[in-house]
Amino acid sequence: MTILWGLLIILGVALIVWGAEAFAEHLGAAAVRLRVSSFALALLLAGAEPEELATAVAASLKEVPAIAFGDVVGANIAICLVALGVGAWIAPLPFSKRVMAYALVGVPIAVIATGFIWNGEISRLEGLFLIGLYILYVAIIWWVERRPPALGETAELEEALEEFATEQANGMRQRVSQEVWVVVAGVLAMVAGSILIVEAVRQISQIETTQIKLALSLVGFATAFELVILAWSTARRGVTEAAVAGVVGSFTYNVTMTLGVAAIARPLNIVDASLLHVPLIVMLGAFALVIALASYKGYLHRGASVVLLSAYPLVLMRLLAEN
């Protein structure tokens, strides 16, 4: 039976990865044509990690908050160590002053969010605060730069705006139905995939400790997998800043927006909050390690890649060895 649930986890991952890609790729085009505000789009696309959000909300609604917490923390560790490690192995990943500023502003936000998570409880009010924290993060960057932040999937927004302007200049008819249906299909795929993953983990074990371990490792890596692929593909194409911005935006998004929405769906509360303490410290440490390695030469190189990729299995072994 465990093998069956394991196969369902793989199916869930496939649905989430496809759904997340379809969502991000077509949301910009659909929303621009529907005249959704640019700021609303930036909030959706800056660090957009709908796969983590869908999984956390599904876990919250199914009353397994351990999976929601573990997924967010595990995914953040994976994107810092694996996604950037893979990208830096293929090509140097520069931390421009712009992206480094995003990362440095993200540090105190991550620390504040960690403070909320530390006791293993997030109420609906605290969830609203975390969402507000993320909105403030994007708003400050927008105000300083006078343009949408170069985080996550916002490149899709710029492409959509350019395409929309070309259509208007050429007098072309605006068609939104195809983009909207693909976005809807992507959302449905993510919802289905997240429900499969959460239910599979819940069936494999009802023990909170085991659920957190599975979420930190298996679920966290699975939901972060799309960003690993993004880092690999963008580094191959030479669009290296996109990989870095994707990680920075996603890291901040996960500890604020993802957990905030999940807490609003149903307040999060685990029995033993100490199970999260070491993983939270590791998560902040992984983010700090990335910033430190990037600050040394202004970019992540192959040497940094070795450090990051080597650290991930060691981190997992340490986390899984926790009682």
Automatic annotation (TrEMBL):
* Signal peptide per UniProt: none
Segments spanning the bilayer are: 69-93, 99-118, 125-144, 180-202, 214-232, 244-264, 276-296, 302-321
Q: Name one GO cellular component term.
A: membrane
Compartment(s) of residence? Membrane
Q: State whether keyword Oxidoreductase applies.
A: no
Record bears the keyword Transmembrane: yes
Q: Which UniProt keywords apply?
A: Membrane, Transmembrane, Transmembrane helix
How does the protein's chain sit in the membrane according to the entry?
Multi-pass membrane protein
Q: What is this protein called?
A: Sodium:proton exchanger
The domain of life for this entry's organism is: Bacteria
BP GO terms, sorted: transmembrane transport
Enumerate the InterPro entries for this protein. Answer: NaCa_Exmemb, NCX_ion-bd_dom_sf
Pfam families, per database record: Na_Ca_ex
What Gene3D superfamilies does its record include? NCX, central ion-binding region (1.20.1420.30)
- Tell me where in this chain the Sodium/calcium exchanger membrane region domain is found: 7-143, 180-317
